[in-house]
Amino acid sequence: MRTTVGIIGAGPAGLLLARLLHNAGIDSVVLESRDRAYVEQRQRAGILEQGTVDVLRAAGAGRRMDREGLRHDGIELRYARQRHRVDFPALTGGRSVMVYAQTEVCKDLIALQLKEGGPLLFEAEALAVENVGEEATAGPRVRFGHRGAEDVLECDYVVGCDGFWGVARKAIPAELTRVFERAYPFGWLGILADVPPSHDELVYARHERGFALLSMRSPSVSRLYLQVPEGTDAEAWSDDDIWAELERRFETADDWRLERGPITQKSVTSMRSYVHEPMRHGRLFLAGDAAHIVPPTGAKGLNLAVGDVVTFARALTYERETGSPELLDAYSETCLRRVWQAERFSHDMTTLLHRAPDATPFEDRLQLARLERIASSRAAETDLAEGYTGFPFG
Ligand code: APR
Ligand code: PHB
Prior knowledge:
With 394 residues, the protein is α+β, with helices and mostly antiparallel strands. The protein folds into 2 domains: 2-71 and 97-181 and 272-349, FAD/NAD(P)-binding domain, CATH 3.50.50.60; 184-270 and 356-389, D-Amino Acid Oxidase, Chain A, domain 2 (2-Layer Sandwich). The protein contains 12 helices and 19 strands. It has helices at residues 12-23, 36-41, 50-58, 63-68, 88-92, 102-116, 239-250, 301-322, 326-329, 331-353, 361-376, 378-389; strands at 2-8, 28-31, 47-49, 70-72, 74-79, 82-87, 97-99, 120-121, 124-130, 141-146, 149-160, 178-193, 202-206, 212-218, 221-229, 263-277, 280-281, 284-286, 292-293. Strands 1, 2, 8, 9, 10, 11, 17 and 18 form an 8-stranded mixed beta sheet that branches. The chain has an 8-stranded mixed beta sheet with strand order 6-5-13-14-15-12-16-19. The model has no long low-confidence stretch (mean pLDDT 96).
C-alpha cells in the first residue's frame, strides 16, 4: 500500500485529520487497531470549544452536531454549598461551548470517511514506524498487522494519532526526547444514567469529600463523575452509594435537587498531565493523546487533538502550494504553545476543585480563596472563561 499521509489511529485526531486532508485534495490511509463498534462506543469527554465547532462545520462534519449538540453559555461552580455561574459569552465577547459527545464526533467522521474519504482500516494494528528520521535513505513506512498477516504502508509522512498507548512516539529517539509528567493521586468514577440532567449547564463542585461533576450526553442522559482514590475499582461502588455520594457533594443551601435514574455504565479514569517534546521527528508527526495528556477537568483533550491536526493539515497544504516546508518545520513549536496553555489550564482547574488526600487546612483555605476570587473578580472569572472556551488555533 502507498499513500501521501499514513495516519495511525482513528480517534478524533486521526479521523479529523483524514477529513481535513481529503478536503484539501491530499490522500491518506488510516490504520486503527480496534473495530468500528469499539471506537464508536468509547466514552470520553464531550465538550467542544468554539474553535472545534467551527473546524468541524468548515470540514463538512457539523450537520448532526448542529442539530443535536447542546450549546452551553456557561458553567456553574459549586463550593461551600454556594452556586456561582460563569457566563461565557458575557466574559469572552460572545464565545460558548458545545456539548456533543466524542462518540458522536467519531461516528460522524467515520461515516463521512467511509462514504467519500480514503481507506480507513479497522483491526489494523501498527507495529512499527520506520525511516522517518532525516538520515533515512528510504521513505517512511508503517508496518502493520491486518487479518492475520503483516503488511506495509509506504508514505511521505506518518502522523501518529494513536493515543497515549500507541507506537508512533517510540520511533522518536530517546536522546532527542523530553517528557514532562505529573500523576494525580485520584481518579474519576464516571457514570452514564438514564435521567434528564438535574441542571441545564455543567456543574463543577468542590467539596471536602472530593470533587464532583454533573455533565450530560443529551436531554435524557446524564453523565456524572466523582473524585475517587487512585486505583478504585468501579464495581466496588453500588449504585445507591454513588447517588448518595453525588448528593452530598452537590448539596446546596437552596432547594436544588439531584434526580436519580438507572445507571447504565460505570468506569474509573485515571488522571495525568503529560507532554512529549518534540511533537515531530523528521517525517513523523505526533497529534492528540499520542503527544500529550491533560486531566479531564477542563475537557481539553479532544480540543487539543483538533488543534494539532488543523495545524498539520494547514502546514502540509502550505507546503504543497508554495513548496515551502516552513510551517511543517514549525509544527512542534506551534502546537506546543497551545498545548502548554491547555496543560496549565487543566492543571489549575484540577487543583482548584479536587481534594488531595494529604491536603492541609492551609491548602483547603487557599482553594476556597481561589474560588471566591473567581466569583468576585471579573478579571479572575474572565481568565477561567477564556481558558474554558478555548485558546486560539495555531
Ligand atoms: N495501531 C493502530 N491504532 C492504534 C494503535 C496502533 N498501534 N494504538 C492505538 N491505536 C488507536 C486506538 O485504538 C484509538 O482508537 O489510536 C486511537 C487513538 O485515539 P484516542 O485515544 O481517542 O486519541 P486521540 O484521537 O488523540 O484523541 C484525542 O479525544 O476523546 C478525546 O479524551 C480523548 O483526549 C482524547 C482526545
Ligand atoms: C463529560 O461530559 O464527560 C465531561 C465534561 C466536562 C469535563 C470532563 C468530562 O470537564
